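Inverse folding, one chain.
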């Protein structure tokens, strides 16, 4: 199946007896619904409900989590997590030079042959799996990955929107499993909940197609 390696991504690990409780109280993702072997999207918001950091989160053992984020924001993300940790028994660390590989396609046998591969739950119409670690691979299809992501309406900060400028609803985190509406409070929760129940989202990601070339961005 086609694949590419993402050189602009980094991993942050949060581990310890209080790791899940700590993250559940500050992130938009409902960790009660996060199963082993999968990654879910999420965000750390400002008190005003804007996305400060976006990421993909997965379980790493019994008391650990991986947060895959943009490499250029990883250090700031770590500092913000440490700021919120207070007395929680949780270790926060950035993993340097971890190879992030993403593969996609409808060949379920090939996609599941690697026991370390994690299912990217944002995608509904195509099987997408992410792998952390291992050596660099030759080849790959970065343009193909971008096309798959866009065709499925999966927005990511930097490429599609700016951090600090979007609400979770703007980039469909409410539809891709990145917001837990049945969990308890988290930072920015009141704004997100009000937007959900009142239907006040003013921007949404939509998939557009045309017989001819689409206009340039902007």
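Residues assigned per position:
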């Amino acid at each position: 199946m086609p694949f590419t390696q993402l050189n602009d991504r980094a991993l942050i690990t949060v581990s310890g007896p209080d790791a899940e409780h700590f993250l559940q109280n500050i992130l938009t993702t409902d960790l009660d619904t996060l199963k082993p072997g999968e990654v879910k999207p999420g965000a750390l918001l400002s008190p005003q409900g804007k996305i400060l950091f976006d990421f993909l989160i997965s379980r790493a053992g019994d008391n650990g989590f991986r947060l895959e984020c943009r490499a250029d924001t990883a250090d700031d993300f770590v500092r913000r997590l440490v700021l919120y940790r207070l007395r929680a028994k949780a270790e926060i660390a950035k993993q340097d030079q971890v190879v992030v590989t993403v593969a996609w396609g409808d060949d379920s046998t090939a996609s599941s042959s690697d026991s370390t591969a994690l299912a990217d739950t944002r995608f509904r119409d195509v099987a997408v799996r992410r792998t952390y670690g291992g050596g660099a691979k030759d080849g790959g299809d970065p343009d193909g990955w971008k096309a798959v992501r866009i065709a499925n309406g999966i927005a990511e900060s930097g490429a599609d929107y700016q951090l600090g400028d979007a609400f979770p609803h703007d980039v469909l985190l409410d539809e891709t499993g990145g917001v837990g509406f049945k969990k308890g409070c988290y930072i920015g929760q009141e704004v997100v909940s009000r937007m959900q129940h009142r239907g006040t989202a003013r921007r949404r990601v939509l998939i557009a197609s045309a017989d001819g070339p689409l206009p340039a961005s902007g």
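The chain has five helices and nine strands. The chain has a mean pLDDT of 93.
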